[in-house]
Amino acid sequence: MSGMMPPPGAKDGVLRHEDAFDVPVVVRSAPANRPRKPEQKAKQPWPSNDQVPMPGWYLATALWREILKHAAEVGRDVSDWLFSLPQLAGQELMARLFPLQAYLSLEHGTPRPHAAAAGRRLTASVVYAHGTEVSARAAFAYRLGMSMAQWACRGLMGLGPTTHVEVEGPAGIMAFTEQGKRPDLWGRHSTDPQEWWLVEAKSAAKLGLPNLRNGHEQLKAGSALMGTLPHRLLLCGTSIYDYVFMTIDDIPLGAPGAHGSAALGPASPDTPENHLDDDDDLLLRVTEAHLLTYAHLRYGQSDLRLVPLSSRRLPRPVHRAGSLTAVEEDTATDAIRTRLRNASPANRESLRNQLQFSDYLSAPVPGMDVHLGMSRELFGACERLFRERARVAEEELPSDSAARVRRPGLPDQGAPMAAEDTEVIRMLGLDVDSPLSTEENAEERRFRDARMRMEERNRRDRSRVREEVRRAYQEAQHSAWPEILQRDEPPLDYGAGRLEGISGADQSYISIRSAGPLLNQPIPQQPRD
Question: Can you name the residues that pair with 159 across neighbouring β-strands?
Fold first, then answer.
C-alpha cells in the first residue's frame, strides 16, 4: 500500500471544494477514433502554464462553478434582440446554464492518481441517458461542447475572451461572418507566438471520428481565411458517454513551426485579463463578453446584492487547473467579511472605502441557484458600451425588430445555414434540405441586412468606443453604487450557503448553492413494505 501514498508534503487542496471534479483530457495533433478507457490513461495533472501542453493524457480538475461561468459567457451573438428587450437577458442565461444543471451529475469515489485530483467525475444523468428525447440530447450536446471548449481554452490554456464568428472574424476579416464552413470561436492569446486561435467545439454522447473530421474541415476553412496571420487551430471534442472527457486536437498548419505544442514553460503568473488597467483593446473585448450579464443586472433583475471581496488579485492556485479562484481559499476576502460583520454601520462604510475592499454587484439567474456579478469598474464599462451599441441598433435595425423576435414569420425563401445548425439538424434526424431547415422569409433577410450595417458601424467606431469604455471604466472606480445605479444601494451579501468564485482576471463573479442537486449525495430510499 505504501506505493499508493502521495509524496511527502503533498497538499490535498481540492477535496474541500465540494464542486470539484476530474476531466480526462487527451491532447493530440489530429482527429482520431474515440479513445477507450480514458480514466485508465489520464494520470498526470494538467500543467498550470497557460499554454497548449505537449501531446499526452492529463487529468484536469475543474470546479463546477467555473464551468457554469464559461457557459454563461460563450455562444452566439444575441445583440439583435438584447438592445430592444434587455430584460430577457436572464432568459438567455437560463438557456445557456439550465441544460447543464438538468442533465449532469457528479459521480463520487473515482480513482485519484495524484494528490490534487478530486476523486469525482462529471457524468450524464440517467434522465439524459434513458429518459430524454433525441432532440433534447442533441441540443444539450451542443451547449455542453461549447461550454467545455471555452473552459479548456480560456481556463486551462490562457486564451483571452472569445468571439463567435457570426459577430466578426479575427483581425476584422469579414469573410468569417459569411455562411459556410468555419469554426465556432476565435480569440487572442497574450503569450503564444501563434496569437490568433480558431476554436471548433464538438460534442456527442459518443463523439466519433466523422464529427471530428467535420470540425477539422471547418478549422481548415477558417485557416485559409487567415492569410499570413500567425494562428493556431484547436478542435475541442467533448464526449458524454459514461462520463465527460475531452479530446483537444492541436492541428498542424503544414509549415514547420507553424504550430506546435511547445515544451512546457514556467507557470504564467497571470492571465491576459490581468492587464485590464493598461490594455484598452483587451478591456473592450472583456466588456463585450459580459454584456449579457450586464443587461441582466441592469434591466432584468431587482434582487441585486453587493458581494464584499478582497481587491487583491490572487495568483491562480497551482494545485488546480482553471482560472477561477474559489472564495473559500481566499483568506483576504474572509478577513474582510469578518471585519464588516463585526463593525457598526458607520464603521462598516469607512471600511468599505479602504483600498483593499471591493464590492461586486450580483444577482441570481431566474429560476436557478446561480448568481452572476461583476466589479463596479466592469459594470461602468459595460454600461457605456451597451449605450453605444444600443444607439447604433436603434438607428440601423428595423423598427419592428422586437415584434419580429416575438412573432417570427413563416419561411418562404431559401437561405444558407450555419454549419453548426446543419449539424444539429442532422443529429435530430431531419432533412437538412427541408423547408424547416433552409428557408427564411423576406423579413428575416431585411433584419440580417440591417445587422450587417450595424456591425459595420460598430467596426468603424471601434477606436472611439474603445476610448469611451476606458473612460467609463476609470470613472466607475471613483463612483458609488447608488450613483451608478440611480437607486438605493443594494444590501451586502456574504455568500452564506453558496460556493463562490472570483475571476480577478476579468473582474467577474459567480456563486452556486452548495446544496444544489448536482452536488448532493444521493439520499438512500426507504425500504418498501
Answer: 189
Amino acid letter, residue 265: G
pLDDT digits (tens, 9 = 90+) for 157-168: 999 999 998 878
At residue 108 the predicted structure's pLDDT band, cuts being 50, 70 and 90, is confident
pTM: 0.85
Least confident range from 152-156, 320-324, 429-433, 509-513: namely 429-433
- Tally: H helices and E strands in the chain: 18, 18
User: Which amino acid, one-letter code, is at 341?
Assistant: R
From CA 169, how far away is CA 160, in angstroms rounded? 15
DSSP-assigned letter for residue 189: B
Half-sphere CA count of 422, side-chain side, radius 13 A:
18
Cβ pair 193, 165 in contact under 8 A: no
3-state SS track over 341-402: HHCCHHHHHHHHCCCCEEEEEEEECCCCCEEEEECHHHHHHHHHHHHHHHHHHHHHCCCCHH
Instruction: Report, as an integer, the average pLDDT of 400-420.
Output: 41
Query: What letter would DSSP give residue 151?
Result: I
Would you say the C-alpha torsion 20, 26, 32, 37 has a positive or negative sign?
A: negative
Q: State the cell numbers at 192.
A: 503564444
Listing DSSP states for 268-319 in one string gives PSS-GGGGTTT-HHHHHHHHHHTHHHHHHHHHS-S--EEEEEE-S-PPPPTT
Q: Are strands 325-326 and 305-310 parallel, antiparallel or unpaired?
A: unpaired
CB count within 10 Å of CB 79 equals: 23
Q: Which amino acid is it at 282?
A: L
205 and 136 in contact (C-beta within 8 Å)?
no
d(CA 411, CA 5) in angstroms, rounded, equals 64
3-state secondary structure 465-508: HHHHHHHHHHHHCCCCHHHHHCCCCCCECCCCCEEEEEECCCCE
- Separation in Å, CA 271 to CA 50, 122, 381, 496, 504: 8, 26, 20, 29, 9
Task: Report how far residue 314's alpha carbon sits from residue 334's, in angstroms, rounded to the nearest whole number.
Answer: 13
Q: 317-360 pLDDT, tens per residue? A: 555 567 788 998 888 899 999 989 898 877 777 777 777 888 99
What single DSSP character describes residue 45? Answer: E
**CA atoms in the 13 A half-sphere facing the CB of 46:** 30
- Residue 9 in this model has a pLDDT that exceeds 50: no
